[in-house]
Amino acid sequence: MEVRIGVARTNKYAMRECGDSVETVERPRGGVSVILADGQGSGKPAKLTSSLVVNKTVALIADGARDGAVARSVHDYLYNMKDGKVSSTLTIMSVDLDTQTVVFCRNSNCPVLVKQDYGIDSYDQSISSIGVHKRMKPLVYEMPLNVGMILLSYSDGIQAAGRKRGKEFDLQHIYRILNENKAEDVNFIAQSILEYALDLDDYRPGDDMTVAVVGVSDKEAGHLVRRLNMVYPY
User: Fold this and answer.
1) Sheet strands side by side (includes 31-39)
2) Rounded to the nearest 5°, which phi and psi values hold at 171?
3) pLDDT by residue, tens only, the chain of 234 residues
4) H-helix or E-strand spanning residue 71
5) What is the pTM of this model?
6) Would 91 be classed as within a structural domain?
7) Phi, psi of 56 (to 5 degrees)
8) Residue 105 structural domain
9) Residue 224 belongs to a domain
């Protein structure tokens, strides 16, 4: 079995800094987590907020904390650091090899989509962002780990694409991209969704845009070589 992660991200038009942050971390008992945060606003202030959130999340997961507890702790941390005046979305998608489950936590207005053999489920229940409300808990989901699964989430720059230009973001288009690709194609999926959103915004994105995709493939285990590929334009 092999876990693959694909990420595609771009900044708001005419902004140098991207207010979204995304990171990966190995789980101490096996597996990997992907963390996606979207800081309030845009530019450098938003980037500082989202970086604060993902870095704290990475540290807690690496220490062995469970994902639901991590999300609560990161909320308390941001609330105390910013006096409840700054919000951030937070999504954690984890492949936990210790429990042989997939776990994901949401404090975001964007869904997590899960593709399995029988179809695609959208987890989009309403939930508040972290950092503002004194009491907050994430929506936490856990399901058996199956080969072929794909998990997908994105920031609200994707979801809002085209809105200011009278165009409508079509979730069914995202479903088609997922249905036409496999767990090995996470990079292509992420890039295809980002390109779709950019096209809706006439390639002048109205907000920061990030897509994160996790796939579980059935590649036979040989040498346990872990690879990371990154392209970082600036």
Assistant:
1) 20-26, 31-39, 88-96, 101-107, 139-144
2) -60, -30
3) 899 999 999 999 988 889 999 999 999 999 999 999 999 988 999 999 999 999 999 999 999 999 999 999 999 999 999 999 999 999 999 999 999 999 999 999 999 999 999 999 999 999 999 999 988 889 999 999 999 999 999 999 999 999 988 899 999 999 999 999 999 999 999 999 999 999 999 999 999 999 999 999 987 666 677 777 777 777
4) helix 67-81
5) 0.94
6) yes
7) -65, -40
8) 2-217
9) no
**Number of folded domains in the chain?**
1
Residue 227 lies in a domain: no
* Tokens linked to 193: 């969704």
Cα distance between residue 194 and residue 11, in whole Å: 11
CATH number (domain holding residue 115): 3.60.40.10
How far, in Å, CA of 216 to CA of 100, rounded? 12
* HSE toward the beta carbon, residue 81, CA cutoff 13 A: 17
With 0-12 CB in 10 A as exposed, 13-18 as middle and 19+ as buried, what is 215?
Answer: buried
232 lies in some domain: no
